């Protein structure tokens, strides 16, 4: 049985996770990402597509016209109350419940991004080239993840043509289109060409059949994508894109204020967020909320480091080398690291933790699925009452043991070098895993 790389597997699973809830809103993008993930998984496992059984899903066709008229359509959920969430965050801070405060702030970020998404949709036309849109099919996806970010989509349909317009903010899509605008790349591929639309440089691609896709990066981290199905030529695409005001999108997704101070505390950032929100400066609100999240991450990181022992397996902690990283984008979340070592030997231990990362929920599912653990060639262990996975690696300097312990959206990783397995397990149980997970939940 082939033992595959855990990191590669988790990246593939993460792609499925991101795509699954958003395929209906993002149309062809979701399909392409999912196909790429399926191909990568088949390659990693060493099987062909015929060897992989079909997985039943609950999703419908991507087309917004595919509706079930036999069901009663419910009302959309009401957006979150931003001011209430900010009050809850301030109250949690007063009680030193930092993880609860972070949760409230993150919910506020999602709510603000929804409002930004509604503004972008309002700036989109209702009809394009004789194709009409339906507000019920509009999509806004706020993931809080840096490489996917905020995605806003509207569909336009006719008898033989369809347009999918997407605005991505804080998205890796923008970087991909910036790469395609490289003139050397465009000239070496007949299916891509660079062009300027409304003063913005973009890339037009053609699938060889009847679909044209125009991508235009704008601002610091945004992109406008127009996918046109059933179009006869690129002139039709150019006519269609002129119905969209890209400068308006950029204005809505840009905070043009400048900083007069960078040493505010969390409460000050939350207060500024409330002021800007009530003034309907949603982009400015999001920026202040993200800064408060960064400060909260730093506080949480320091508290976790204080919970770790000062020595482990006879090795002293190098407290000056403690590391923590605050990532308000949400993909990596909070990252902390502590190293224990003995200078006279090759023995060392590293304890690190990633908190509030959506990827960790998938790691937890992986570890709690016996078939997947068996395929990976790893061992299941239990540390402080929590299930984990033990991996043994032989390198040139000896044996390295790694223990991964997930819980919800967090994971603690312990790496031991030059230490026997019995001592590894004994030392791992000296880490207050339960207390740490309780603190960050």
Can you lay out the helices and strands and say which pair or pack?
Elements lengths: L5 H14 L3 H4 L1 H18 L36 H13 L3 H26 L3 E2 L2 E2 L6 E4 L7 E8 L4 E8 L2 H9 L2 H5 L4 E6 L2 E7 L4 E8 L3 E8 L4 H8 L4 H7 L13 H13 L3 H26 L3 E2 L2 E3 L5 E4 L7 E8 L6 E8 L3 H9 L2 H7 L2 E5 L2 E10 L2 E10 L2 E8 L3 H8 L4 H8 L1
Antiparallel strand pairs: 1-2, 3-4, 4-5, 5-9, 6-7, 7-8, 8-9, 10-11, 11-13, 12-13, 13-14, 14-18, 15-16, 16-17, 17-18
Can you describe what's shown?
The chain is an alpha+beta fold and 441 residues long. Among the domains are: 54 residues, no CATH class; 133 residues, 3-Layer(aba) Sandwich (Protein Transport Mog1p, Chain A), CATH 3.40.1000. It is 40% helix and 25% strand. It contains 15 helices and 18 strands. The strands form 3 sheets. Strands 10, 11, 12, 13, 14, 15, 16, 17 and 18 form a 9-stranded antiparallel beta sheet that branches. Helix 4 runs antiparallel to helix 10, helix 5 packs antiparallel against helix 11 and helix 10 packs antiparallel against helix 11. The two termini are 37 Å apart. The N terminus is likely disordered.
